[in-house]
Amino acid sequence: MSTTKKYSTVASALRSFVALVAVLSLVVCVVGPTPEARALTVDKTTAQPNQSDGNQIIGGVPTRITWEATVGDDEEIKEIHLVFPAGTTLGEGANTKATVLDGLARLETPQENTITDEGTVIDFAEPVASGLLIRVEIFYVALPAESGHYTLTGRYVDGEGTERELEESPAIAVISVTVVESITQWLDEQPWVEWWNSQLFLRVFFNPQLIVASVPTLFQGWLRSLGLVLVGFPLAIPIGLAVSFLRMARFRIVRFFASIYVNVIRGTPLFLQIYIAFFGLPFLGVSIDSYLLGILVLAMNSSAYLAEIFRAGIQSIHKGQFEASASLGMNAVQTMFSVILPQTVRRVIPTATSEFILLYKDTSLLAAVGVMEQMMFAKSMVASSGNMTPYIVAAGYYLLVTLPLTKIIGSFEKKLAAAEGHSSEPPDKKKKRKRLQKTEDAPSDSFAPPHDNFRRGNGLMGPKI
Amino acid sequence: MSKSNKLFSLIAGLVLAMSLLLTGCGGGGGSTTGNAAADSGSGAAAPAASEIRTVTPGVLTVGSDCDYPPFIEMNGEQPQGFEYDLLSAIATEMGYELEYLPPQNFDTLLASVASETKMDVGCSSFTITDDRKKLIDFCTPYFDSNQAVVALIDSSYTSAMDFNGKVVGAQSGTTGADWVRENLTDSGTTLKEYNQTSEVMAALVAGDIEGAFYDEPVAAEWASTLYTNTHIVESIPTGEQYGFAVSKGNPELLEAINDTLVIIKNNGTFDRIFLSYFPDLTPPSLGANG
After folding, report:
1. What is the CATH number of the domain that holds B187?
2. What ipTM was assigned to the predicted interfaces of this complex?
3. Which of A22, A124, B20, B183 could serve as a FRET partner for A63 with CA atoms 20 to 30 Å apart?
């Protein structure tokens, strides 16, 4: 019992001694280097992201390194020798530029710079005075291909000609070459790619390297666009149905307000509605997440079109159905939900699907207000590459959804026509549809898409599919 | 078949009508500064107008996004600002008429200049960078600039790095957007890019973004005029320099602009224009271009 107690006191004494030593050594560590004041303090070191499908720095691919340091009190800097991490290579046109700033004022600083695989030397014609910021940009250097954290080291020469070590720079995180990047590099070396890219049209619109880079990046954008419409459209359906009921209400005043809703929304561009929602709501102190707000605007817009589609669908059901239901003793609600709507659903599916397609394409308008979606991803890739290829790839992604849906609509319409007892022979059908599109108000017993003329006039929308 | 033909002719007609409209607008907007070179006495070194190829002979056609005061902005239908006055002086000295095209998105301007089909000069406070120099040429730098991050006055940010991991905005294709990508490397950082800097500011005021990154002189101008509920959180010294963009295929025009810059520097026109916008700054020497 006592022995264990003794042991424990010894142990605790030992522990506190260890702790004391640790604290002391820490103090020494912190205090240690300060007596020797640095003549040149490295503030930051960064590299420009060079990943074509992301924001990271890839080893083995040229980038621009920015290294900043401040000249200490009563010191002058004559030369800076920066040493690159081992394995660094130079890209085409590699060079070094040093900018000297006094606060925000840029100073003219004649300099002679050299650059090799090992490092770069900046030789100032006049020593850089104390308190100034030296900003060194090293263009088109490729950091080592292996992933890791790399720092710049080196030395500098002060005003008196004394050479001193530079403190190690902050580390730059480098990732190893990605699949996309290695395919791009492989493409760079292919003779057919070289020929392909020598043709202006092919280079600007179908650049193979950029196709490879944009497919994975734009996939994220595609998912986000799809998300917008997959949430927005189902949200629009109940609103649209409710509005269509209001449009057919018994009271004139209700019909009046419902028609105002429908006509204002269908009579103004979606683009304008988006701007009002995104830049107007904040003035009222309403702050909604932009992705959510995007969904809401799309749903509101689509609900007006759907309301008209549903109304036309409901009114296309023959009067006899209402009368038959009434004779069976059904009330209005029962009639609507168990007799009329089930028949309507089948009739509106093709038009509602083309409304879905329109809405899906219209998600692109949200790019203008900073919602991250397909168009935004494509736009930012085009801006950074100066090439149209990402737009073409984005077009491909849009078609990936719209083409199959168009096909489905076509086959559904054919089936519908057959089921409703119309002639399903193609030439006849074509003629009939053309005639219907021309007349503004379709006869109530035949069904025509009511939204066509409105959307055309909007100017921003693509042609109806 | 006939349907697609109809569509094609419709598109063709539309494009034609649009281009007519565009040229019409441009012609009306810009011909206010036309002046003969012979008027200016110091025009000895200015190259003759006929030697230089421009989109419209005798006219310097300029593209800009016109949304960057005090450098370039729209005053109704007419552009104004330091860069406009500077280009007007250059055009006058060269004996050219100056014509600004309707504002165009910043991130499309350099490609438009390079294609040589629409405009001769890109004027939108372009920072001269090596990457851009691969696409087009720049004239002698005429202004030193820096980056800044702007936030609402009642926000608690104190430095640019405070925005690491936050939702920030910048104009698409600018060095501000590049700065964010390079420096705010936290995985939580979201960069929203907008077509216009005024849209970035609208998003900031709306609370869509926490901070806006763009050039310091414009940030200072707007914080004191249009967006008084915003302030510069931190000015970021980057030592950028502005240059007008000219196609690589038109070195004669570049040379003429650079020569003219030296002429108007020597006769005091440049300093007068510079100091009327920036009385506290020292005009650049416009001498040797590094």
Report:
1. 3.40.190.10
2. 0.77
3. A124
